[in-house]
Amino acid sequence: MKTALVTGAAGFLGSHLCDRLIAEGFRVIGMDNLLTGSLENIEHLFPLERFSFYRHDVSTFVHVPGDLDYILHFASPASPIDYLEMPIQTLKVGALGTHNLLGLAKAKNARILVASTSEVYGDPLVHPQPENYWGNVNPIGPRGVYDEAKRFMEAITMAYHNYHGVDTRIVRIFNTYGPRMRVNDGRALPAFFSQALRGEGITVFGDGSQTRSFCYVDDEIDGLFRLLMSDYHLPVNIGNPAEVTIREIAEEVLQLVGNPNAYITYKPLPEDDPKVRQPDISLARELLGWEPKVKRSEGLKYTLEYFRKAVRVDEMTD
Length: 318
Ligand code: UDP
Hints:
9 helices; Rossmann fold; 318 residues; 2 domains; 39% helix; globular; seven-stranded parallel β-sheet; UDP-galactose 4-epimerase, domain 1; single chain; two-stranded parallel sheet; alpha/beta; binds uridine-5'-diphosphate
């Protein structure tokens, strides 16, 4: 039986990854400091003998007993409001955390997949973004703490691959959505769903003409798993190329939720907010035989089911 360590295991993507690895027959060790993650996302795994959990901050030395075959480094604040509030932790987990986990991968002779991001492209001047685009990042802007930590992550991962021969994988994750996102996480879809369900104003930033390309979580996880099992060590974009303006997706959520009290309201655009974003997934298609399958209309329905419950629970615990 193969053993995988997942950092950020109690988070949105981390918890879905744990589920997939358990379903694939792995033994899974989850690790999380619960800064932005929640044990509720993995409580269903606790009864399983093949699952164990350590509450630990991977920015400090990481010790795991026994053999390890795979490491998946998914720990990080990932929402712009989170990394604005926690700039130092964001830099540390992307930089020091990645260093610690690469050291662990080297010591255990394990394969490591690190979670990079479309933010390495910054406010892109090439559209859609292929992996060979170097990006347009402001290192000292509010997003710099996340973007530069992830760029450092890619650099040190390549260095461990080239210098130490560590078996590495780098995924660049584009906007992903689905069950287990935090109600108050501040990202577009969690904000829109909870505002629409509560009958409040749906806060579109700027004039809403900026674009994103949203991938349903099951598709994203499938792409990540395929990349982990591949033998390709350079960065690969995993995301859904179906591009939409923020105003359009706000309207889609408004319609789907159908709450007559909800309405769209406009707020100032945050600094350095990328104007466009769309993954070029030619490489993933060719290399992994992967492309997203879940249409946005379906994905949004599954996500609404989750947010109906999550918003109720959030109101009860307020
Ligand atoms: N956004 C918005 N209203 C919100 C939250 C986000 O209009 O309440 C916009 C944000 O300005 C950005 C896009 O939606 O243009 C996606 O933002 P998100 O925070 O989800 O992630 P990003 O892709 O910017 O990292």
